[in-house]
Every structure is written in C-alpha cells, then in structure tokens.
Amino acid sequence: MCTLTLSASVPALKPAECLDSVCPSATPAQYAVFFFGLYLIALGTGGIKPCVSSFGADQFDDTDSEERVKKGSFFNWFYFSINIGALISSSLIVWIQDNAGWGLGFGIPAVFMGIAIVSFFSGTSLYRFQKPGGSPITRMCQVLVASCHKWNLTVPTESSLLYETSDKSSAIEGSRKLLHTDELKCLDKAAVVSEAGSKIGDYSNPWKICTVTQVEELKILIRMFPIWATGIVFSAVYAQMSTMFVEQGMVMDTSIGSFTIPAASLSTFDVISVIFWVPVYDKVLVPIARRVTGQGRGFSELQRMGIGLFISVLCMAAAAVVEIKRLQLARELGLVDENVAVPLSIFWQIPQYFLLGAAEVFTFIGQLEFFYDQSPDAMRSLCSALSLLTTSLGNYLSSFILTVVTSLTTRGGNPGWIPDNLNKGHLDYFYWLLAGLSFVNMVVYVFCAKIFKSKKAS
C-alpha cells in the first residue's frame, strides 16, 4: 500500500497531468513501481487470507464444548468484519479516490494496515500458538513415493500392523494422531513395514515409510476434494456480481432524480446483505436450528453449504426473471435495435444481490468452518488456502462458460445471447444456464456430502 501511495503521489513515479484530452502515457519505470505495489499486495494477501481465519480459530479449545460453539460464531463475525471493511472501501475510500486523489485514497488504507500490524503484534502474549508441522505438501509427496516404492507389498488386514509411533503424540509436530480408515488402501502401502525395514529397525526415512497419521492426512484431503470441487461452480455464480450483473445494470435506468448510480456500485447491496445475514444467522437461525437438530452449531458445515448452494440457484433465477422483464419492456418500446438503457429501475437488481449475499454467508463461511474442522491439525492453513482457491477457479470457469456460450450462440451470423447490444441478446438464457448448472452442482454436492466421512482423531 505504501508503494502504491508513492506511485500515486510522487511526481517522478506517476504520469504527467493530462493537457485537455491528451494524457501522456506512463514510463516503463512508473509502470514497474505501480505493478510492483500490486504484486506485493497479492503476495501479502496470500499470506494473510489462508492463515488469519485458521489462526483465529486456533484460539478456541476444541476439547471445551462451550469454546467449540464459540468457534462457530468466530467464523461468522470474522466474515462480518471483512465485509464491514469492504463496505467502507467501496464507498468512502472510492469517494476519496475520486474527489481527493489516488494518493490519499491509497494512503489511508496504508495507514490502517500499519495500525492492523501494531494491533496484531500487541496481542502476542495472549495468543495460543499451534506448533508448525513442516510442509504438508512434502508429507503428501512422501506418502505417494513410499506407497509406489512398496507397490508389490500386501497391506495387512490388521491396521495395528501398520507403522505408527508408539508415543501418545504424533510424529508430525503440532498434530494429533489420526485413526486408520479403510478407504484408499493403496496409500496404506506407505505405512507397511517391509521385512528388510523390520530387520534393520530404521524407520527414520519418511520417503520409504510413513506413519498411519501421515497417510490419513492425504486420505482426508482426497475425501474433501469432491466437496471442494463443488465450490468452484458456486464461485462461478458469485463472479457474475462483478461481470454480468454490472452489464445488465448498465442497460437499466440508473437515475434517481438528478443523481446517476454507477451500475457497479450496486454490489454494495451484496455487502449489505452479508452484514444483515451474519447477525440473523448467528443470533436467530442458529438458536432455532439448535433446538431442531440438537447440534451445538445449529447446522453442520455440510448442511450450511448445501443451503447456500440452493440459494445460489434462486439468485440466478431472480436475475433471469429481471432480464426477461427488461427484454419484454425493450420489445414493447421498440428499443431492441438500439443500444440504450431500458426504463426499468436498476433497483430491480437488489433481490439478486441480496440472495447472493445470503448464499455467500451460508456457503463461504461454511467452507471456512468445514476446511478448518475437517483438515488435519498440521494442514489447516493449506486447506483454508484450498477453499480460497475455489474463488480463483470459479472466475476462470465463469470466463470459460462465457467464451463457450458466445462461440456457440453467434454461429451463422446470429447476435448470440450476450451481444454488445444486450437488448438484442438473451442474457436471461445465460442466467438460466447458470441456474441449471448450479442445480446440478447442488445435486452432486448432496451426494458427496452424504458419503463424506469426517476425520477421526485419536
């Protein structure tokens, strides 16, 4: 943030002022400083996002039933605080950038990041620290190599014959022992004690023999994979908020009296929806669900994510209905061949943003809980990073679907579903396609959730 602030403030680091309509381009050095700042933010975000939620949840004792329930609330209010920041950023900070300059607009977040660092370190003496267990990717590779190395060996029917340390604690620092499960027996070969190894009595090389706990870590990740994959389709739906929802809003009536509302600013209603739904979920829905299900958290993580996926189907259906109404009005007013806005208020988009915010509260926060609770103790940050990866892959999937749809629907000289003039297109078909994909995704998710087996720690 400091680099971006300097890039926008120091005359030598920013392009010269525009003269009338002529704006000089930035020099390679100015571009370099600017992009260096952006990539530093990406690097810093990669460090913060996967770890901060896991570190926060580590402050709660899983063996204490009261703290375990509070941990569920922590994820809700953690996500709530993120969206408070997003609301301030997308309103106040954007206004400052537009009216007072980019230097001040970048400088204020830089100051607040400094305050955040001081705040974070000031609590050092109060934190509970989990011992780092080394690289989880290395441990996974060790299991694969060891199991391939002993491919010809037979896995004993008695799991007690598989290699595991005799100590109460696991060989992996900061991790509890995991009980053996019967799935994916091919990976159990990594924990088989060979005759040669038994004679020597040397079990120190993890590339040749792994503990049951280490093997079970990889099994857990494989079992979580189908659940993780369904999050990609949800993220593709979520990506519409900054793409197709904005395109749709631009051809609607964006005026309120003498004011004009930027179509992209309606995403604020998604943030407001999250801010509304988090307290409702935590203080109203959870206590009601607790009485019905008997679970301390009200809903299990899998139930919560399933509800979010269902709401995402409703979100796409709502967007399609609005588009059907907009196209109907365009035909009635003879605006089909004109690339102009249709006199239908942009506020008709609010329900789809509101539903998307509700889906976000159920699915994204449910993902945070699920990947934290079900991941091995020494893999929590990695699994949190995997849950964030669905957002990235969902954006790529959205782009891929859009490319395929455009290619298929513009054949034979047709304008296609999403032409430059949306009044001639059928954006509603695209929304119905996403609603259909979301429904199929939800059905697959329900099947995967039913067969999913939770981890078992000893």
UniProtKB/TrEMBL annotation:
Sorted alphabetically, the Gene Ontology BP terms of this entry are: oligopeptide transport
Which residues are listed as membrane-spanning?
A: 28-48, 77-96, 102-121, 220-239, 259-281, 302-322, 353-372, 384-409, 429-452
Q: What is its main location?
A: membrane
- How is this protein annotated for GO cellular component? membrane
Q: Which InterPro entries match?
A: MFS_trans_sf (IPR036259), POT_fam (IPR000109), PTR2_symporter_CS (IPR018456)
Q: What molecular functions are annotated in GO for this chain?
A: transmembrane transporter activity
Family membership: Belongs to the major facilitator superfamily. Phosphate:H(+) symporter (TC 2.A.1.9) family.
Q: Which Pfam families match?
A: PTR2
Q: Identify the taxonomic lineage of the organism of origin.
A: Eukaryota, Viridiplantae, Streptophyta, Embryophyta, Tracheophyta
Name of the protein this chain belongs to:
NRT1 PTR FAMILY -like
Protein's membrane topology: Multi-pass membrane protein
PROSITE patterns in alphabetical order? PTR2_2
Keywords assigned by UniProt, alphabetized = Membrane, Transmembrane, Transmembrane helix, Transport
Question: What subcellular compartments does it reside in?
Answer: Membrane
Coiled-coil spans in chain: none
